[in-house]
Amino acid sequence: MQLYESSQDYLERILMIEKEKGFVRSIDVASALNFSKPSVSVAMKKLRENGYITFDDADHIHLTETGRAVAENMLDRHLTLTNLFKKLGISDEIAAEDACKIEHDLSPETYEALKNLSEKL
Q: How far apart, in whole angstroms, are the C-alpha atoms of residue 70 and residue 12?
């Protein structure tokens, strides 16, 4: 299954909420992304059906091994690019927005080069 940008964003946000709160509910995802609860429910169903997340008895969302790998990759890309842009003098808000726009589209080679550059700055 091809994982679309929106699915990557959902997985990344689930990981971020998990790190912040220790647990994740659909309403937390909806609130964090400013999406409607029904929209998030549809997305969570697709992510569950494709093996990226599971739900426990309390309806908490858990990333599967595959889902966690995608989420960690996207979060690493986001943070690396945001930090690089900030080092270049871009404001925090714009740096984060621009990182979010391009984190999905960079080739692994370009991303690694930017990551190496960021570490040198």
A: 8
pLDDT at 113 over 90: yes
The identity of residue 23, as a single letter, is F
pLDDT number for residue 121: 85
H or E stretch at 58: none
Half-sphere exposure of 96 (CA within 13 A, CB side): 3
Q: At 87, which amino acid appears?
A: K
User: Cα torsion for 81, 64, 50, 30, to the nearest 10°?
Assistant: -60
**Please, which residues have CB within 8 angstroms of residue 49's CB and are 6 or more apart in sequence?**
none
User: What is the phi/psi pair of residue 54, to 5°?
Assistant: -135, 165
